[in-house]
Write a structure and sequence with these properties.
about 450 residues, alpha/beta, Rossmann fold, 2 domains, 7-stranded parallel β-sheet, 6-stranded parallel β-sheet, globular, disordered C terminus, binds adenosine monophosphate
Length: about 450
């Protein structure tokens, strides 16, 4: 299929040509006609599939036929969970709309509000925003929504994870009921569907990858290793492969700092990016990574959202995420737009629960590849048979409940073994018969 058959104007087609896209990606092929028709949409699409152009191109087309906004009014609102993603989506809006008289702007927290208010004064066709700053601007009378025609909720699943649900609900109440709403999410969990109920009207659902499966072009496997050897293994892999651009994931901010520091000490230029860093530091880190000045970017899950780097060849999970869906997000950073990529997870024995949760979610047992010289003393248990389960993110409140229910009171007469003991027994069973290595390739 070609872009010319999708009903986009010559100005937009020219911009697409300048970008060098020869044909629409599957999500674009499906979403563009639906958005052009003015229908509501729920699209399951991961980052890297070309989803941004999937909504931006038809929105530009629709807006170019209407009236300009009055002062302090906007015609389209694109909500994103992070500043990085907001900035990146705005770049796409500017790129694809370069030949059109469509105005756009981006607003997010962590920077001065004054210049953002000034830009809004003239009225803006497309505003890309993070929820908190948008509400601030609204409370200061800087933005009005009566002329809003289109709302886009980008990476809706992440919005929920980051606790934006109340902000989003507040924003929705401020918007006109008659509008077009487009929801994009990597996965459509029950929580997302619940949110969607009050948001979209008779939406058309599309999906470009089956629910929660990982992008085809990505080769991903795990490398079992003892926790204490992870840093040495990471350094070894980077040096052995002579990798020049590596994105490393860490579960914690503290861990991200430590990894970057340890790599730096070994002469591998690295920087960490996470929520405790200022917006300036994050933007600088990202541009240095993109330009090749920094070889390794160590990121937490939240900070990594919105990182878009073409041909990012290597992703390393220094540790596994506790939410299995994040694994799909993490490895989706490589193999972007159909290109090949590889993602390696360094997994220690204490992470077997996270590993099995991920394997259950993606319905695939991850291949184990041992690295010469880094064979673990503590084996990662063999994966159990895969049982399909309904994936659900753990809710904070649920955790406490589960914990209470499962906990055995001190001095209780309950004869059952304590959880830890039971886990150790289960692991022993799983490890039997005790062969040192059972991973095909490395026998
Ligand atoms: P996204 O999923 O929106 O984050 O896009 C991922 C990457 O795909 C971006 O770097 C886009 O520039 C690129 N891209 C989007 N549409 C196309 C297309 N039709 N052909 C080739 N690359 C594309």
């Amino acid at each position: 299929m070609s872009f010319t058959t999708l009903g986009l104007s010559p100005q937009i087609l020219d911009a697409i040509k300048t970008e060098g896209y020869s044909e629409p990606s599957p999500i674009q092929e499906k979403s563009i006609p639906i958005v052009l028709e003015g229908k509501d949409l729920m699209a399951a699409a991961q980052t890297g599939t070309g989803k941004t152009a999937g909504f931006t191109l038809p929105i530009l087309e629709r807006l170019s036929n209407g009236k300009s906004p009055s002062s302090n009014h906007i015609r389209t609102l694109i909500l994103t969970p992070t500043r990085e993603l907001a900035a990146q989506v705005h770049e796409s809006v500017k790129t694809y709309g370069q030949n059109l008289p469509i105005s756009s702007s981006v607003v997010f927290g962590g920077v001065g509000i004054g210049p953002q208010m000034k830009k809004l004064r003239k009225g803006i066709d497309i505003l890309v925003a993070t929820p908190g700053r948008l509400l601030d601007l609204h409370s200061q009378n800087a933005v009005h929504f009566d002329e809003l025609e289109v709302l886009v909720l980008d990476e809706a699943d992440r919005m929920l994870d980051m606790g934006f649900i109340h902000d989003i609900k507040r924003i929705i109440k401020l918007l006109p009921k008659k509008r077009q709403t487009l929801m994009f999410s990597a996965t459509f969990s029950e929580d997302i569907r619940r949110l969607a109920k009050g948001l979209v009207y008779q939406p058309i659902e599309i999906s470009v990858t089956p629910r929660n499966t990982t992008v085809e072009a990505i080769k991903h496997w795990i490398c079992p290793v003892d926790k204490s050897s992870k840093t040495a293994l990471l350094i070894h892999l980077i040096n052995k492969g002579e990798w020049q651009q590596v994105l490393v994931f860490s579960r914690t901010k503290h861990g991200a700092n430590r990894i970057a520091k340890n790599l730096d000490k070994k002469g591998i230029n690295s920087t960490a990016i996470h929520g405790n860093k200022s917006q300036g530091a994050r933007t600088r880190a990202l541009s240095e990574f993109k330009s090749g000045k920094v070889r390794v970017l160590v990121a937490t899950d939240i900070a990594a959202r919105g990182i878009d780097i073409d041909q990012l060849p290597h992703v390393i999970n220094f540790d596994l995420p506790s939410v299995p869906e994040d694994y799909v997000h993490r490895i989706g950073r490589t193999g972007r737009a159909g290109r090949e990529g590889e993602a390696i997870s360094l997994v220690s024995a204490d992470e077997s629960k996270q590993l099995f949760d991920i394997e259950r979610l993606i319905q695939k047992q991850l291949e184990r590849q041992l690295e010469e010289g880094f064979w673990p003393k503590h084996d990662v248990p063999k994966s159990p048979e895969l049982q399909p389960v309904k994936s659900k993110r753990p809710k904070k409140t649920d955790n406490t409940k589960t914990h209470k229910k499962n906990s055995i009171k001190k001095n209780s007469s309950d004869p059952r073994p304590k959880n830890n003991q039971r886990r150790r027994d289960d692991q022993k069973k799983l490890n039997k018969p005790k062969k040192k290595f059972y991973w095909g390739k490395n026998k």
